Automatic annotation (TrEMBL):
Pathway: Nucleotide-sugar biosynthesis; UDP-alpha-D-glucuronate biosynthesis; UDP-alpha-D-glucuronate from UDP-alpha-D-glucose: step 1/1. Keywords: NAD, Oxidoreductase. This is UDP-glucose 6-dehydrogenase. The lineage of its organism: Eukaryota, Fungi, Fungi incertae sedis, Mucoromycota, Mortierellomycotina. It comes from Modicella reniformis. It catalyses: UDP-alpha-D-glucose + 2 NAD(+) + H2O = UDP-alpha-D-glucuronate + 2 NADH + 3 H(+). The keyword Oxidoreductase applies. The active site is at C274 (nucleophile). GO terms for biological process: glycosaminoglycan biosynthetic process. One of its GO terms (cellular component) is nucleus. The keyword Aminoacyl-tRNA synthetase does not apply. One of its GO terms (molecular function) is NAD binding. NAD(+) binds at residues 9-14, 34, 39, 87-91, 128-129, 163, 274-277, 344. Residues 330-383 form the UDP-glucose/GDP-mannose dehydrogenase C-terminal domain. Belongs to the UDP-glucose/GDP-mannose dehydrogenase family.
Length: 383
């Protein structure tokens, strides 16, 4: 029986996903750790570091009972039977694969820390989104650094929550994926995690598979979702040129049960910390596997997204008599979508930067994003 869980990374995934486990399983002690003291302090305060509908109630109900937030990483690792690794995996900024591959440094550091301080066997769960076969590297690090007599079993349990609906997605998910090595020990570890989720999720929605399928499924799901957005956005360009209405076209297509209505809303383009990163990750993986046609196919989803953002701004400028110089333009909403305060890769950043380059006066308001964050996003190198 798992009695003690540690989650490394108190971010948008680690925080809500493990808070929900604490909320649903009162007899399991959950400790969420992070190196970022300010973030942990916020988790322990009245104003949580992330905005997510329904999150406050869950955290306030279990905090100090079976849910704890701390920067004492080593102690939490030592005490845990099971460790979720929910650290960030951003796109690499420099070196091999820069601009495409996932930066696995945070995963590796967390894994090394587990190996160095663990004094008993652990189930280590890859929760972060990672390229296919990262679990293999984690296993190598753990086995090479651990002292005798300690066993590490690795599981892949990618997270499918969407920001803005995270609590709903976590309490009533379409599915949970758990990948394991196809060995008796792997299956045993997998069953322990299955039995945690089945405390509140119907058994048929907890899908088990091998490690590599589970890792790849997460990248595949995000690529397919983003592809639909780029597809409808590409059609929106044709609609604008022909006088067709993209909402009518989307409705007509979405009523076909083979297509379905979701993710068919034309927009200024997708944002967020995941879609672009995960597709580029898939592109890099395809290139590494000598599959250039596959890489080009998925790359075009990102290219179309960039084109849509640019096209949107050009249209604003054209509509305002081809100049926005010194015109005051209000931007309502700065987060990458509604019901979140997360601005990572928000289309609003690109939009603002284009408008500012055109010398417009841009006034931004978002009820969930402070002025400091907006300024920081707009003064990032490259924006
Ligand atoms: P985040 O940046 O909000 O949180 C990651 C946290 O990990 C940070 O607070 C960081 O300080 C901490 N951290 C990094 N290295 C550490 C270490 N060695 N020890 C302790 N703490 C450490 O990232 P987010 O959004 O939670 O994403 C985490 C992973 O989940 C990523 O791989 C992401 O792709 C994936 N994911 C994110 C989703 C989202 O909606 N944000 C949805 C599904 C998956």
């Amino acid at each position: 029986m798992v009695k003690n869980i540690c989650c490394i990374g108190a971010g948008y995934v680690g925080g809500p996903s493990c808070a929900v486990i604490a909320y649903k399983c009162h007899d399991i002690k959950i400790t969420i750790v992070d190196l970022n003291q300010a973030r942990i302090d916020a988790w322990n305060s009245d104003v949580l570091p992330i905005y997510e509908p329904g999150l406050d109630e869950i955290v306030f109900a279990r905090r100090g009972k079976n849910l704890f937030f701390t920067t004492e990483v080593d102690q939490a690792i030592i005490d845990a039977d099971m460790i979720f690794v929910s650290v960030n995996t951003p796109t690499k900024k420099a070196g091999m694969g820069a601009g495409m591959a996932a930066d696995l440094a945070y995963i590796e550091n967390a894994t090394r820390r587990i190996a160095q301080v663990a004094t008993s066997s652990k189930i280590v769960i890859e929760k972060s989104t990672v390229p296919c076969r990262t679990a293999q590297s984690m296993r190598t690090v753990l086995e090479a650094n651990s002292s005798g007599g300690i066993r590490f079993d690795i599981l892949s349990n990618p997270e499918f929550l969407a920001e803005g609906t995270a609590i709903k997605d976590l309490t009533n998910p379409d599915r949970v994926l758990i990948g394991c090595l196809q060995t008796p020990e792997g299956f045993a570890a997998q069953q322990k995690l299955v039995s945690i989720y089945t405390n509140w999720i119907p058994k048929e929605r907890v899908i088990t598979m091998n490690l590599w399928s589970s890792e790849l499924s997460k990248l595949a799901a995000n690529a397919l979702l983003a592809q639909r957005i780029s597809s409808i956005n590409a059609l929106s360009a044709i609609c604008e040129a022909t006088g067709a209405d993209v909402d009518e076209v989307a409705y007509a297509c979405g009523t076909d049960s083979r297509i379905g209505p979701k993710f068919l809303k034309a927009s200024v383009g997708f944002g967020g910390s995941c879609f672009q990163k995960d597709i580029l990750n898939l592109v890099y993986l395809s290139e590494q596997l000598y599959l250039p046609e596959v890489a080009a196919y998925w790359k075009s989803v990102v290219t179309m997204n960039e084109y849509q953002k640019q096209r949107f701004t050009h249209r604003i400028v054209r509509t305002l008599f081809n100049t926005v110089t010194f015109k005051r333009i209000a931007l309502l909403g700065f987060a990458f979508k509604k019901d979140t305060g997360d601005t990572r890769e928000s289309a609003a950043i690109t939009l603002c930067s284009y408008l500012i380059q055109e010398r417009a006066h841009v006034a931004v308001y978002d009820p969930k994003v402070g002025a400091k964050q907006i300024r920081m996003d707009l003064t990032e190198p490259g924006v």
